[in-house]
Amino acid sequence: MSSSNILRLLVDALRGGETLDMGSSDTLKLNPKSWGTSKYVQLDVGNDRIQFEGVDMLLGDNDQLIFGDGNDRALVWNGSYLEMGPASGLWAGAPSPADPQYHTIAHEFFDGFEAAPLDAAEVWHEEDDAGTGTNAVAMVVNGAANVVTAAVDNDYHAISSVKEGFKFATGKKLWFEARFKLTEATTNDSAWWFGLTDTLTTGGIKADAAGPLDSYDGFLIWKDEDTLLVDSELSEAGDQDTDASEATFVSNKWSRVGFYYDGGTAITPYYDMNEAGVWTVGTAKAFDATISLAAMEEMHVVAGVKAGPGGAAETLVLDYIKCVQLR
User: Fold this and answer.
1) What is the sign, positive or negative, of the torsion defined by CA atoms of 96, 100, 104, 105?
2) How far, in Å, are 82, 86, 299 from residue 98 at the CA level?
3) 212 and 188, same structural domain?
4) For residue 241, what are the contacts with CB-CB under 8 A and spacing of at least 6?
5) 299 close to 218: Cβ distance less than 8 angstroms
6) DSSP assignment of 154-191, as one string?
7) Could you report how far apart the first and last alpha carbons of the chain are, in Å?
8) What's the domain range around 30?
């Protein structure tokens, strides 16, 4: 007995006379009697597709529609909102912009730097010591912004979102990502930083190789002068959880940094250096008895650069900055 006849018998037995039809081109067509002739599910071999005609495909809560040979992307309804992203990693579980309720579900800050990035009345505010270089929108495909220091040791130049639009809070998952490039004027000389902070004194970072401020609420990823190693830190006032040497910066290469807050106690940093195109997971930080989640304040998005002891001007090229949080 052929495989098609076996399938016919199985369907007949299980579905009370409904049919599974195999056409001359090995096309399979499921057409239960109760549907009539206008409704069917068909495996269309000739066109390499499965066709649903007049019927719905139902995926329950947390059932995934997966794309890519390596399970690269998944579309899933998690019971509250539509997710679209990788199965794991930085953007796993993020709300999908394809969800019609996206902007009621999530607050999104995004700048691809197609226009002037320093309009203090709308998006960005400059943080500098008045001796710094001139920022500018770069005339490149996809847009970019140049944040520029003066040629003076410890001259800093940062941009911060005008509004303190984000706050770590229970149940409010958050995703942050930035893509950038910096060609160091002198190897190891520059410092740069990205993340969220409520305190913008000296742009959010101290002089020399001292890292972020002693007291602030936020999460920062940065590189100090005199090194190529990248660090990350969770801070609530004067209490910090810091991990050093989590990644290695490569001059004149596009890099990405990011982090994910799980809506509970954990914040995990991510790194993609040297144009690798793959996220590397850093060490998760946790709110605890010392670092209080309840005491956290609202935070600005920030990105900055600082000249090092060689006294050469540094230019931080920003491709985009994005931060998304559940409302």
Assistant:
1) negative
2) 8, 15, 27
3) yes
4) 233, 234, 235, 285, 286, 291
5) yes
6) T-EEEEEESS--B---TT--EEEEEEEEE--SSTT--E
7) 60
8) 3-53
Q: Which two tokens stand for residue 121?
A: 């009345």
Amino acid at 149: T
Residues 134 and 233 in one domain: yes
Cα separation, 49 vs 24, in Å, equals 17
Only one residue has tokens 């995990």, namely: 268
Residue 101 CA to residue 95 CA, distance in Å, equals 10
Within 8 A by CB and 6+ apart from 231, the residues are 211, 221, 222, 223, 224, 242, 243, 244, 245, 246
Nearest partner of 180 among 54, 81, 272, judged by Cα: 272
Overall domain count for the chain: 3
- Whether 98 is covered by a domain: the verdict is no
Contact 246, 282 (CB under 8 A): yes
> 164 with 33, same domain?
no
95 vs 227: CA distance, rounded Å: 37
Copy the structure tokens of residue 325: 């949080």
pLDDT tens, residue by residue, 290-302: 999 999 999 999 9
Burial class (CB in 10 A: 0-12, 13-18, 19+), 252: exposed
Residues 180, 150 share a domain: yes
Between 12-16, 122-126, 210-214, 313-317, the lowest mean confidence (pLDDT) is in: 12-16
CB 84 within 8 A of CB 66: no
Indicate whether 96 belongs to any domain.
no
Compute the Cα dihedral for 317, 320, 326, 327 and give only its sign: positive
69 and 209 inside one domain: no
Position 14 scores a pLDDT of 43
Residue 26 banded pLDDT, cuts 50, 70, 90: low
